[in-house]
Structure formats: C-alpha cells, structure tokens
Amino acid sequence: MTAHQNGTISTGASEFLLNCFVRSPTWQLWLSLPLGLLFLVAMGANGVLLITIWLEASLHQPLYYLLSLLSLLDIVLCLTVIPKVLAIFWFDLKSISFDACFLQMFIMNFFYAMESCTFMVMAYDRYVAICHPLRYPSIITEQFVAKAAIFILARNAISTLPIPILSSRLHYCGRNVIENCICANMSVSKLSCDDVTINRLYQFAGGWTLLGSDLVLIFISYSLILQTVMGLKAEGAMAKALSTCGSHFILILFFSTVLLVFVLTHMVTKNVSPDVPVLLNVLHHVIPAALNPIVYGVRTQEIKQGIQRLLKKGW
C-alpha cells in the first residue's frame, strides 16, 4: 500500500518518506554543492590512503592498519548516507523502503561506534609509542591489531544491533514522513503508534556508555602522553611527540564535539531550528571522513613519502 498525500499510511505500507529541509528549499541547492564536493574529497582521499598503505610495504605496520580501518569506516558511512541525501536534493527521491531504512540505521550506529572505538585503540597506540617506546614493538603487534579489530567488531555489533531491531518491531500505522535526511533512530521511532520509551532509553544509555567510555579512555591516554612529553629533555623530542599526537587529538575532538553538539541540540529543540540537528547529522557523516585522511596524510611523513613513491611509479 502506498503513502497518502496527507502523509499517513496504513499498516501495510512499505516505505518512509525523508522530509529533508523542505522548510528551507534553498538549503537543498546550496548545501548540495559543498556536500557533493566533500563527498568526492572523502572518497578520493580515503581511497588514496588505502591504496598507499596496501601497496607500500614500508607502511605494513600496526598504526597504518588502524588508519586503514578508519578509512574503510569513513567510506562506508559516506556511501550509506550522502548519495541518498544528494538524490533527495537533486531528484526529489524521498522514498526509502522499510528494509533499506532500518539497514541504514544499523550501519550508521554500528560504524559510528566502530569509529569511536578505533580512535580509542589509536590513542592507546600513541600512548605506548610515546610513554613506553622500548616496549612498543612487543605490545603493538599485528596480533594486537587483529585482536583489536575483532573486539571492535564484536562489541559494537552486539551493542548496536538492538537499535534497528527495536525500531523495526514497532507498528507504523500513522505518519510515514521522517523529519530528517536520514533514518535516525528516534526520527523513525517517533512515527510509531507504540510506546518508544525503551527505544529512547536504549539509544541514550547505549550511546553514552559506548562513546562515553571511549572518550574517557582517550582522554586518559592523551593526559598520560602529555605528562610524559612535558618531561622529555632531548632537543626537539617534545615538538615531535606533540606533532605526532596533535593531529590525532584534533580529529578525535572534532568527532566528539560535533556529536555532542548534535545531542545537545536534540535536547533543546524548543530553542533551536529543527533543521539544525538535521544539518549537523548530515555533515557529521562527511566532514570527519574528508578530514581524517587529509590530516593524517599531511601530518604523517611516512604516508606522504609513500604517496610520492606511488606517483613516481605511475599512480
């Protein structure tokens, strides 16, 4: 059964409609240009980073494997969200099937949690490299990276899978218009005729438990790093250590800050335009993805040299 013009559906409906900035149609045109550009930059930069690490034997080290994982997560998050948003902006393709919507919901929650966890493991890698440099080769091994990857997959799959399951089990017998550009959990769940308290509580508790614990561990790691760096007496050692960790910390801070602003705007919706959290949600899928490989590529000498070697070989 298809959707009615007034935005209602009966129980047999099979799709949602993504109501993306319809109150501000000019936003769609002007936002689509930088969004499309950021998408191309994110896909291109992450692709170059992955190819460089894959083809350059000198980069087959634990830290660069973690960078590869981060690039893969960014690519998947971009592909899951941005093409659909651009299709809405350019071709007015607002409809999305129930299955596709709940799949998008799972991928967004799962890969976001994985990205946060990957940042945590990378912070630990930098902590060992700077605070225990002599023990680094014996602690941060390929086996460590493999175990970390399994942990990242398992922890976040188990913790985020209930989110789309809880939403998909609700009865959608009223409106089918999602006031968002993406299938965010609460944007979808609040369309249900059922009580969504459990969905709301799980999203809140799960999000803060996962991201909160990761942020605490990241903060502890960088606090210990800073403490160690301040005690370095070798000439240039402090500057080198801060340079190595500076880019990591800036990206983590940006990732966390945008997410925090998004959460806060949702909590104070009475004083904020409904379009603001929607805009932040969309941008959070593409800006970190575009920044991560550029910052790491520019700030990491080994990666720059690897890209230069590949260019000389004809890439």
Automatic annotation (TrEMBL):
It is found in: Membrane. It comes from the Eukaryota. Gene3D superfamilies: Rhodopsin 7-helix transmembrane proteins. It is a multi-pass membrane protein. Its main location: membrane. GO terms for molecular function: G protein-coupled receptor activity; olfactory receptor activity. Residues 45-296 form the G-protein coupled receptors family 1 profile domain. It holds the Pfam family 7tm_4. GO terms for biological process: cellular response to lipid. This is Olfactory receptor 56A3-like. It comes from Canis lupus dingo. The lineage of its organism: Eukaryota, Metazoa, Chordata, Craniata, Vertebrata. The gene is LOC125753286.
